[in-house]
Amino acid sequence: MSLRSGSRRVCGSKLLRPQSLANGSSNLRAATRWQRCQGVATTANAERVLFPGALNSEFTNSMDFLRPSTKKAIPTYRVMDQYGEVLDPAYKCDLEDEEALKLYRNMVCLSIMDLLMFEAQRQGRLSFYMVSAGEEGIAIGSASALSPGDVVFCQYRETGVYLQRGFTLDDFMNQLYANAKDHGLGRNMPVHYGSKELNIHTISSTLATQIPHAAGAAYALKLQNQQLPDTPPRIAVCYFGEGAASEGDFHAALNIAATRQVPAVFICRNNGYAISTPTSDQYRGDGIASRGAGYGIDTLRVDGNDIFAVRRATQEARRRALEDGGRPVLIEMMAYRVGHHSTSDDSFAYRQRVEVEDWKRRDNPITRMRKWLEGKSIWSEDKERELRSSLRKEILVAFDKAEKMKKPAISNMFKGVYENPTEEQKDHATELKDILTRYPKEYDVDHHEGGVGGLDELLETKS
């Protein structure tokens, strides 16, 4: 169900509970039923059977194949419409004005940074970049509902998650330039951020690998939550696109998360395209949410342009993830990828420009929240102009500073694997230093900290 075709407004925050779909009046918990069904044989007059592979299935003499196309699509939860009007009069925003303004500021900051960095790449000052246009509300809204201790696994369009959790503009620029202050010391390509301090694992280009990693981390957190009952419980949160949900890693991760009942929240950004492949060519089922139900996972579909719906859904998902020792939750966030997949992509080769312009004009998370703020009389055109001007200056200052900074010392290419350098590594470093010294014109390394001398510390270290 796409946002374009869906006209039904859903204002409740009810998550799809797969175990509640079974017929019958049994109130047994799903885990208990699974335990009881093993090895149970039916009696002659039984109306239903507990097969080891099914839950409380009724017998029937009617052969009716399940046809998903005849069923209603999973509804999409939202709090406010594209005009910034709250749909449910009973809804009470849990944000103070200053908190709401911070969320808005971060969304605007993200959009301005995306624009400037995209232009910088086109100027040849960056090698690569990916924008989040149209999806700012998903990243920032969901991140605002998490605990700082929660362990986060991102894909590559979650810049807003980092921003909301405290990643600074300097941190972003240092990573994009792979300079000496980059947390990864130049070992990763641009926009593949990571932060141990913020409990966010470093992004990997390999599609979907973070999903089983998150399931495994959630299992470890489940054990930790049990062993340390006096410390605040934590969950694992995993972000991915609907294209990644076509990988085998997605299915393996959700299955083990469900069977192990781990405290994890899986957030799928369904933005309509997996690079150049539209969702119509990716799957025939009802989006990604329908898969959560298939794996026995609490599931919800959310309007990703509605930051309040995103935030509220994530809050509830986190609460459920910690219930009864842990359980996984899947949220499918619906949005539209306004920008190109990356700076290496020209999306107008596979979609019409008018389609993109229509989405830009009609609805996006930033304008929707701005209308809400203006409706509360806490925002105005003058404040908007001032905010955008000041943010642009802040971003450009950080950009200019990072661009002028030197690259990490060459010795870093040998570090991070062994606690101390091995003799073989030292031999390689010695050979490298010899080549760099003999051919200085061919290998200009003065833009690295210490130049050729940057290898000396490594060579002097005891193995």
From TrEMBL:
Known EC number: 1.2.4.4
Major location category of this protein: mitochondrion
Family: Belongs to the BCKDHA family.
Cell compartment(s), UniProt: Mitochondrion matrix
The protein's name: 2-oxoisovalerate dehydrogenase subunit alpha
Swiss-Prot/TrEMBL catalytic activity: N(6)-[(R)-lipoyl]-L-lysyl-[protein] + 3-methyl-2-oxobutanoate + H(+) = N(6)-[(R)-S(8)-2-methylpropanoyldihydrolipoyl]-L-lysyl-[protein] + CO2
Known function: The branched-chain alpha-keto dehydrogenase complex catalyzes the overall conversion of alpha-keto acids to acyl-CoA and CO(2). It contains multiple copies of three enzymatic components: branched-chain alpha-keto acid decarboxylase (E1), lipoamide acyltransferase (E2) and lipoamide dehydrogenase (E3).
The keyword Metal-binding is annotated on this UniProt entry: yes
Native source species: Aaosphaeria arxii CBS 175.79
Coiled-coil segments on the chain, per record: none
Cofactor(s) needed for function: thiamine diphosphate
Top EC class for this record: oxidoreductase
